[in-house]
Amino acid sequence: MNQSLGIAALVVVLAATIGVGVYGLRLSRATSDFYVASREVSPLWNASAISGEYLSAASFLGVAGLVMAYGVDMLAYPVGYAAGYLVLLLLVAAPLRRSGAYTLPDFAEERLGSAAVRRVASVLVAVIAWLYLVPQLQGAGLTLQTVTGAPRWAGAVVVAGAVVGVSAAGGMRSVTLVQGLHFWLKLTAIAVPAVFLVLAWRSAGSPALTGDDVPRFPHATVVALDQRTTFDVTAPLTIRATGELDGRSYAATAVPSRRDGSTGVPVRLGRGEHTAAAGARLAFPKGAAVPHRKGLRPATGAAWARPLSGAGGRAHPLYAVYSILLATFLGTMGLPHVLVRFYTNPDGRAARRTTVLVLVLLSVFYLLPPVYGALGRVFAPQLLLTGQTDTAVLVLPQITQAGEAGRLLAALATAGAFAAFVSTASGLTVSVAAVVSQDLLKGSARGFRLASLVAGVPPLVMATTTAGLPVADAIGLAFAVAASSFCPLLVLGIWWRGLTDRGALAGLVAGGGLAAVAVVVTSVRGPGHGWSAALLEEPAAWTVPIAFAVMAIGSLLTRHRISDAAVDRVMVRMHLPEEVTAQAYPPVPQVDVPPQTTGG
Amino acid sequence: MTGGGQPAPPRRVAVTAPRRKRAGGWSARAAAADLHAQPRLAQVYARAIIRDQLRLALGVLAALVVVLGGVPAAFALVPALRTAELLGFRLPWIILGFVAYPVLVAAAVLHVRHAERVERDFTDLLRSPAEDPTAPAERAVHAERPEQGVDGEESG
């Protein structure tokens, strides 16, 4: 890979981020600037910032990777990511903005008047944000490794450092400016190479995507492995290898092979499992069926393009699709960094209109990743062997465009990827930092800076010490936890007078807890088979109904705890237009006078 | 927000009637002060507007669930759809990769329009409780609202 251009792209993104961050720092004076950008952000810029923050590693890299490996069913992710914003608009956007709650714990306390619920909500915010941050940092590591060959942890450390620094230095205002910028960078970075990709596909004679054959190498291909990889060979073939393969070392030969120029030693690979060590280089002849990474079943183009075919070896595809849809529909509203953003709208009406704009921007973006997923099977099938399908967006531009143009496109894609990691990660860091600093450090700007560190370090440790799932799957688990905890809290809290603090507490613990357990089990034991694996890998379909049921039943059983006057007050503020309520009720306290946890 | 039918004036008009005697007509401050002074009034208002907004939101949500949620079910029930082609592309890819997004945006625009209308009607109602300020076209949105909803307030 072209190291210098890739590094240049990374440096430009980070420099622009920090530059705008410092510019923002000069503008932010009061504590409220740090938290909520003083609520003075224009609608389009705010929508760009929301979209920029939302389009994470999962959207930029993960969707293409999953589509490439598992086929059309995976389009449920981008559709769900976008539809989640529609559900948020329908059920949450305006009332939540009007409630004046700045964070989810604020909302819990304001609505239910309970310090206990607030504390549980704070813990859940941190858990969800950390779950969401880990794949961002792992994506950063993968990207930097793909582009420069640096070790995995390096990219994670770079992004975590930049994010903690920016959020500690500038807070929300700078984050808003940066994220607005990042959206347009990401859109450009995925759209421009996509055009070239489609052109390359056409000029290659539009090879069929839906044929009855498994992916084959379009030409003699040397696959360099960054890490120890186990793969399955379905038809015996002879390759040329250097490095360690199946426990034997092969040194490079002096004379390159006449056929593919490889200096590897010819090795006959029989059917079955083979393991290559990190640093091995395997040269495959043209037309050979691509061996797939262990656990990924080779799928014919026909199966890959057909819904519910279970292509790639996913169990129970219909259940998985519905569970993904449910988690993303309902999880979006429970993501801490998404909610904070709504506070930057001046009123409930603006919150609604901004959401529509966000939906438009996201829709345009999500048209593009499937292009990479589909054409990746034609142009870069070796990613199915290395298992790094998440890098399809990064490597395809350079494979399909020769020379300088390809290098520039690859640099652009790298810049977009880093924009994705940095903007989502900074949004998450800010929201966790806000919760930590308000609940633990009395809400001062200095406390916020300290809290940024608290928010950024644990996921960095997790990201560098664990291997990780595919990026979009890992994000899907964060969505599942959010959908099983905050979604019922918000929906019932906003629309149902009968929600009580005890009911909410029970629902948060039951739903969030079960989903979190499923996440932990899935992460520890890796991909599995059968119903138990399907239920654990896509837990939303059962944890969300449980959370709603526990919250509702718990509230009905503790009905006596409802204070009519208090509920009315909150309901009036959330649902009546601002011009009516503004006079009757004092404006919501600014966050430089943080809401105290009085518990009542 | 009952808006409503010509028979039997909406109950809420009776609740807000005393304010018409206030000198100087409507002002946001006066209306708001009323809400403040009469928690019961605010509660009635809030319940009415919550019901309207919730009905609107659930309506759009139901449509979304049927349309988008129906796609995988359709593929499961009618296997021919899985490989159907349209304009040289596979139908599932067209639906999930492209058509879904304009549908989402259209649903969002529709919802925002109606939600703002509900709020505008509500503010208008506060402004002049005696006459019905809603235009006929706008009234149609709430025409199906049953009157008995207001009676339910007394039990709560």
Automatic annotation (TrEMBL), chain A:
Which species is listed as the source? Actinacidiphila guanduensis
Tell me, what is an example of a GO biological process annotation in this record? plasma membrane acetate transport
Instruction: Tell me where the transmembrane regions lie.
Output: 6-25, 54-72, 78-96, 116-133, 153-171, 183-201, 319-343, 355-375, 408-436, 448-469, 475-496, 503-524, 539-557
- The source's superkingdom equals Bacteria
Q: What is its main location?
A: membrane
GO MF annotation list: acetate transmembrane transporter activity; symporter activity
In its keyword annotation, does this UniProt entry include Membrane?
yes
**Where, per UniProt, does this protein localize?**
Cell membrane
InterPro entries per the UniProt record, alphabetical: Na/Glc_symporter_sf (IPR038377), Na/solute_symporter (IPR001734), Sodium:Solute_Symporter (IPR050277)
Q: What is this protein called?
A: Sodium:solute symporter family protein
Which Pfam families does the record match to this protein? Answer: SSF (PF00474)
Record's Gene Ontology CC terms? plasma membrane
Name the protein family: Belongs to the sodium:solute symporter (SSF) (TC 2.A.21) family.
Q: Which UniProt keywords apply?
A: Cell membrane, Membrane, Symport, Transmembrane, Transmembrane helix, Transport
Record's bilayer topology term:
Multi-pass membrane protein
Q: Does the keyword Cell membrane apply?
A: yes
Automatic annotation (TrEMBL), chain B:
- Membrane-crossing ranges are 56-81, 93-112
The protein's name: Uncharacterized protein
Keyword entries, A-Z: Membrane, Transmembrane, Transmembrane helix
Q: Say which species the protein is native to.
A: Actinacidiphila guanduensis
Composition-biased stretches, type Basic and acidic residues, lie in 139-148
Q: Where is this region: Disordered?
A: 1-22, 126-156
